[in-house]
Structures are given as structure tokens and as C-alpha cells.
Amino acid sequence: MPKASSFTPDTPFLPVLILAAALSSFGAAPDADAAAETTDTQMETQDKEADDTRATSAHPEYVTVKSRTTADGSTGRTPGGGLMPHQKAPRAQSGLTRDYIARQSPTESPVALIANLPGVIYSANDPLGTNDDQQGLSVRGLDQTEIGYLFEGVPAAPPLFLMPYTSATADTENISSVTLTQGSSDAASPLYNAVGGQLSVHLSKPKRTASGFMDLSYGSYALNREFLRLDSGEIGHTGVTGFASFSYRNASQWRGAGDSPRFHVDSRLLKEWGKGSSASLIFSFNRQRQYYLRAPSKAQWKAQGTHFNYSRTYTDGDTSYYLLQENARAQTFLAAPVNLHLNRHLQLSLTPYFIYVSGYDGFGTSLDPKTSYQGNQPAGPLQGGVIGANGKITAVATDTFKQAHSGITASLEWKAGRNSLTAGTWYSYYDFSNPSRYAAVYANGGASNMLGHQPILTASGEPLSSYNSHLVQQVNALFVQDSFKALSNKLTVSAAFRAIMVTRTISNALPGARYRNGSSYFSPQPQVSASYDITAHDQLFINGTTGFRAPSGISNYNDRFSVATGKQNRSATSDTRPEYSIGEELGYRHTGDVNISASVFNYNFTNRQISTTSTLNGAQVSESINGGGQTARGAQLEVSLKRWHHFSPYLSGQYIHATIDNNLKSGDDYLPTRGKKAIRTPTFSGSIGLSYDDEHFFGMATVNYVGPTYSTFMNDERIPGFTTANLSMGYRLKKVGFAKSPQIQLNLMNLGQPGYLSGVNSVSFNAKPTTGVYGTRIAGRAPSYFVGGGFAGIVSLSTGF
């Protein structure tokens, strides 16, 4: 059997290893109790939390807090086992702390971690939670391309495709917290797609004393994962601290053939001084490769279940051989956030950043050696490839890409008395090159080169291509925000205005295609909010927000041609109008022994952008469908208890009623979709959890429910609701020799679920033949679905030192 192709990123790997070695050699000798102590920052946070619960009380409360932090960062203090940290923002907001993150499988990405928060629908595609390319996420019915993703304040999702790729930015051991804002984003956030909310991931700070942490995980599907972090402590007497970590993970696909190796590095240098001044240098590198899992239609799922996938072995002419369905991605992330406390009134924040991504997506296809086309021009006879018994050339349609994304955010905050005024700007420059190629497949099923360096050529010697695109995008944004406190600081009123300008210029060097295309978008976005602290434990909030999202994907801007016939099957003049949203929200919070967060919301959308996939000459490409207007109304709830006799329960849920506001165009007619329910929006969803931690034995159980979900705008096909359950348990020691807080942990995922349809991969206007508004018979097309992973078990051994 041929070996899987290797993928060498453009980023050199040696400097990363040198950095890790250098950090481990700096700093003072490890403190004997470093792993068990609480850092100054943690102590300040805990003291503030305690102060918040006692503030302005008529009768002072005397509370004794026993603080402990284990080697994996958990404290046991967050309500709901880490699922419900206290929030004060005047909008619906949920989060995760180390108490929850550390109890989950270390293979899970932040997108998988937030599955139990209210409003979140996570469509898993593998039980280990590792597949960024093939997983679904929606919040209040809005998909992951409508959720802004920030990593340490940096917009970390690819600016054109907007998929978050959260596992590429940090290992879970280095994530200190995750915050999800449902339905809106902060006016100061450097985002232009956050109509559905904002996901913020925060990297842990370096420790003040030299130390280390190691985590080894093994389990189902031949999983092996190793993680090592080294903290330098203070470097000399500079006040600078740093850490570097390295991890390796590999596992077999849970269905079908193939594996998924991943290499990852995180590092951070930090200097803090004065009253709130800091400077940090953050670097991460990620390289991974995997094979696509075949997304079934409902009929294919009923016929074959989890056995519907790509072929394990190659036969002549087989375009569904798994080695031909490969994708690889390497990402380098660099950011340097700086916060300067200029004086008692002024605070300046600057964050320059740079992200570079390269890789490819491959899909098996076949070509006619004589009658294939390059755009609208005949390309044959083709050069290269093996002509099979069917007279066709079996090939890999490779979608290669290079993305360079740089930018800077800057803001200046002025505080005087009860007033706080902030003004800022954001600029980003994005360069994306995307030439497609066709790689020859040998008689044994191996591909010549997945990066397209040895492509199939046309008769004139040019690489055969379906598109040869280059895009440049620039974003300019300005914002101003003012907050005023009144009534003994119980009332806070805020108003903000943000203006975003997005300019895209696209070229396509394919014969017959429009060479130059592009678009410009301008969006004014006002926001207002108010919160009132009824007591030290009770808060009311209200807000009105607006949001904007430009269409995702490059396919909408390119002319498309069939490589088999040369006929144009899509024009670059497709609908590229941006999505715009207006939302209102009213909520209530209570903190104490019982913690409650409840809110009701209403949203209206115009030009709702629906992300989906389509097939172009054998390759799967991302695109946006204009879903017209949409209205969504609903309510969400979170309830938890503080730890009581080592137990802490959690409950969350959402009800939403989302409908399409108008009939959608299909060809020369319209489908009668007005009043139909929105796709990817189950009416009910929720989860319950229970955690236990007595400082030695610990565990957590969660159960998640997702209701039936429509996959077509005509509501003529849906998937049934499903329930998943996860369990973790373990035992922790305090100190054994040099090992600090060593522990063993067992994670069991998808208990009782051998496989299920977990979400919608590609949507359809209608699955069944339908009569349009003007009498046209409109053919149906079957949607495809994500298949939720089967059962998996993982054992992890970890320790600080």
C-alpha cells in the first residue's frame, strides 16, 4: 500500500525547538512548592471575586477562602465545575475555566469544549474532538463562520473563510479560560463576522518560578499524545517570565482508514510592571494532516451507517480511495500585545499580529485525457497521469493555498470620575493565493505530489487548473465607546459606535474567466447597553446590538467552468451582499451559593449568509448562500451551585424560534420558504453536568441534548434529535518526590452512542422536488451530514515538576 504523502510547511521548525531549550535553561531553580502555590495573579483574581460578592453589603460577610491550584491549573472554585464563572458584562455571556478544561480530554479543541454552554450546538465528526475541518458549530442558530474568534485579542480565524480552526492556536493545557458571548460582540473587538457571537480563548501566563508540566495520553483509535511545558520563571532580574511547550498527537480515523498526526508549539514571554502595564510576545506553531471523512446523505446513512466512507484499498479508477481525500495545514501565529498605564486617567493598548497559513485539500476525481478543458479552452491531450481501463485519468484535485494575515489594533481609554471613554482602530491586510492543480495517481494509488509540484499538464504545458485565484483584503475599522456610572455605581450605561470598511480585490487567471473582480463593504454599527446591580448578588442588563458579516469563501467571486465540458456553471456576478443583524437582549444574573443567568433575545437578519460546501470538478469548496431575511426569538438559561460537599451541579438550556422571512430564489423561480423554520436551528437544546473534587478523587459527568434539526430551507428533510454523554474521573496525589500533583485521569466520550448524525454539513434549498411560487418544477438535492463519533476512552497521566 502506498504511504501517505508528507507535508512540509514553509515555517522552519528548528527555531521552535531552540526556543523551548532556551526557556528551560533560564531562571531560578524550581521552588519546592511551586506547583501547589497560587500565583499572585490568581490570588488577585480570587480576592476580587470574593470582594465582588461582598461589595456594598449592608452587613459585612466574613468568608474564609482556602485557595489551591493543582499542577494542571484547576482550583475547584468555579461554580458548575468550571462551566459557569461569574460574568458582569451587559450581555449574555458564558465561559469555561481550568476547572472544566482540565477535566476534558486533552485532544479536544475549544470549539468542542464549549458544547455544553447555552445556545451552543456542536456537531462532532470524531470522538476525540480533533477535526477542525469537519465539525459544525452554531450559536443561537448561527454557524461558526458567523462567530468571531479571538485568540488573545487577535482575530485568529482565516479572514476569508472564517472557520475558527481553534486547535491550531493553542494546546488545551495552555488555555487559561474560554469566554463565549452569545449573539453579539464587543464594539472594540477586531471582528467583521460576529453576527452570532464571539468566542475568546485566553493563553495562560508564564509561572513566576521555574517549573514544568507533562501530560501523556493514550486511548482508543491508537491515540498517543505527549505534551511537555517548561516555565523559565523570572529570567535574571528583568521581570520577564516565559514558557514554551511542545506536543505531538496521532490517532487513527474513527471510521475509515488513515491517521491524523499533529505537531504543536506554544510559547509566551511576559513582562508586567507598574499599575496594569504589560508587554507580551506570543508564538504558536501548528502542523497537522488528516483524511476527510465522507459526509453521507440521509439515504446513504440509512443504507450503510458508519460504514459509509472512502475506500481502504485502491483499485483502478477508484476516485474514492482514502489517500486521495487528504488535507494538511500549517499555521504560524505571532502577536505582541502591549498595555501601557500612562497615568491615572489614560491606558493605551496595542496589539500587532501576524498569521501565516499554508496547506492543501485533496479530493479524488477523474479526467478525460483528450477532451478536458482549461476554463473554456480545450486542454487535451493531457500530459501525465495513468489512463485506466475506463479510459480516464484518475487524479487528485488539489486545492493549494497560502495565507498571510497581518494587522494591528490600538485603543486609548480615558477615565475620569464616573465616565470612561475609549476610542480605537483596527487595520488588517490579508493576502490569499489559491491555485488549483491536478496530481496524477499512480497504479498503486499513490499521488505524484499533493502540493501540485508535479501536476498534470495541458497540451501547451500549463498546469491543468479549475481556478487560479489571488485575493487581497484590507479592513479598516474605527470605534468609540463611552460608559457612565450612576446611582452609587449600581447603574452603568454604555453607548458605542463602530464603522467597518472591508475591501476585496480578486484575480482569476483561468482562460475565459473574468480576470478581475472584487467588492467593498461599509457597515456602521451602533450599540447600546445598560446594567443595574440590584444587590451585590443580582444584576439586570439590557442591550441593543448590530452586526455585520461579509460573504465567506472565494467561490462567490470566481467564474466557474466544468473541466469536462468547458461550460460555465457559475458566474462571478453571484449575490455577494453582506449579512446585517439587529438584536435586542434582556437578562438577569444572580451569584452566590446558587448561580443563575437568564436572558431573552430577539434578532432580525437581512441577507443571511449560510455557509455550505459544493463540488467543483471533484473538489469540495466552501461558499455562502444568501438565505434572505430571518427572525429569531428565544431564551437561554444557566444554573449552577457552588461546590457543596465537593459536588457542583450545572444546567443549561435554550429555546429558540427562528423563521425565514421571505421566499428564496431558485433559478428563475422562488421557493415558498417564507415562514419555514431556519436550518441548523433546533428548537430545544440543553445540557446537565455534575462535578466532584475532594483534592484527591475528582470527576465530571455531562449529558447534552440537541433537538431535531432542519437541513433544507423548505423543511422537507431533517435529522432527529440526539443525546450524548461524557464522563471523566481520576485520582490526584499532592507530591511524590519531584512530581507535584501527579494524577491519572480517564475520559469516556460518547457513552452509548455508536454513531449518529450530529449536524448539517452541506445544506440544500429543497431535498424533494418542489413547485415554485410561479409554477416551475424545482428539482431536489440531498443535503449531507456530519457523523458523530462512536465511543472513545482516553487515559492521561500528568504531573508538574
TrEMBL record:
Is Membrane included in the keywords of this UniProt record? yes
| GO MF term (any one) | siderophore uptake transmembrane transporter activity
Whether Ion transport counts among this entry's keywords is yes
Q: Where is the composition biased (Polar residues)?
A: 66-77
Q: Which residues form the TonB-dependent receptor plug domain?
A: 87-187
Compositional bias, Low complexity, is annotated for 32-44
Which top-rank group of organisms is this from? Bacteria
Q: Residue spans with biased composition (Basic and acidic residues)?
A: 45-54
Give all residue intervals belonging to the TonB-dependent receptor-like beta-barrel domain.
302-751
Q: Which InterPro entries match?
A: Beta-barrel_TonB, Beta-barrel_TonB_sf, Plug_dom, Plug_dom_sf, TonB-dep_rcpt-like
GO CC terms, sorted: cell outer membrane
Which Pfam families does this one have? Plug, TonB_dep_Rec_b-barrel
**Which family is this protein grouped under?**
Belongs to the TonB-dependent receptor family.
Q: What is this protein called?
A: TonB-dependent receptor
